[in-house]
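FAQ: What does the model actually see?

It sees only this:
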Amino acid sequence: MKKMLFFCLLVCLATLPAVAPAGLLFNSGEIEPGLKYEDFSIGQDGNLTGAIVNTSNRLRPAFRLDLWTTDMHETRVLWRKSLHIGSLPPGGRFTFKEPYDKDYDSSLRIKFSFRIGR
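And it is asked to produce this:
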């Protein structure tokens, strides 16, 4: 029984980084196989910072990454941005710092969504 509770707690904690209250570290997650985001956070200065990492063993040709935040029910888009990313070699990392609305409600829970474009 204790092992089952521990496992459930571990699963809950593992899924927490993708969805967290605004103003906190969002950690890492997978966008699609071979591509992930790392260290997403919204700072007190109103900037969203983080990195996109190519975790595959092949070159990823230049692409556009659309990212946006929504409320937890995905009924309202709070912020959106398109990042034009050059070719990423295996293990390549694209870091960014983008303005995020300074007037966001820090008690609001938000969700990141991604779309890959060419």
